[in-house]
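Hello K.,

You asked for the raw outputs rather than the summary table, so here they are, unedited. I folded two proteins back to back in the same session to keep the settings identical. This is the first:
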Amino acid sequence: MGKVYEGLTDRLRSFISEQPIYFVATAPQEGGHVNVSPKGHADTFTIIDDTTVAYLDLEGSGVETIAHLRDNGRITVMFCAFSGPPKILRLYGTGRVVTPHDPEFTDLIKRFGPHPGVRTIIVVDCERVADSCGFAVPVMNHDKDRTLLDDLSGRTDTVTRRVQRATNDRESIDGLLALRANETDPIHQHS
């Protein structure tokens, strides 16, 4: 049976820090597509306080999460235990997009490990923290993190693509505005 918590306890913080992957889910206010994004690298996620978390939004592919958060703010972050005792932890809340132009960006970026291609930081104010059994989640081994996203950051084709994306407005697959031209700088911004 699942349990609802007032906030992130020491035990839940420990559980989060042990997970090599987490998932982020968002959806537009009306119609459109629900988006679920897997996120790797444990050093891209941080706990700010008992009810506030944040993660690095690295330039990679789409901008669904940013568009959805700017549309309605709803977000769920989910952690699954793929090893050890079975558990699923969901953080339901309201997310906001922090760009390099926002005053809090400079302090927040210091909380993460070193990664190139930082687009934004997503901050989530958790309104509900709940776990469930995870009995059907498979047991899997985490061999290593993939470094491909970081490794590609210096390639000419990657830089060209990031410049093109950053200097133009970007929309979600449903046509919601996510980022305005030059709102981020994933070419030069590193954590």
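The second followed immediately with the same parameters:
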Amino acid sequence: MSEFLLPMAEDEWKKPAAEQPQAPSLMTRLALVEGEVLTYLEDRGTTTLRRLIRDLEWAAPLVMMGVGALIRAGLVRATQHDLEVLVEARRVATR
């Protein structure tokens, strides 16, 4: 029989998940990034994805995931312009 290594000690993986220390949720960080992207766009208007990544203090993949989530939610629009991706906030119609 082949032996394999577990990523943690046996007594740790047998504990219920509630007893193990948890890392911060990706969803929480992603929501924070989304909020910062929206605030940035409201303050400064249309910008490039490259500038968003440079100006926000988050990892590039998180900023890109946040922009993607906002696009899917219909709050942000992104368009390709030459080699840049322009990101702009969509105006939400109020009744």
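The CA atoms of residues 50 and 84 lie 8 Å apart.

Happy to rerun anything if the numbers look odd on your end.

Regards,
P.
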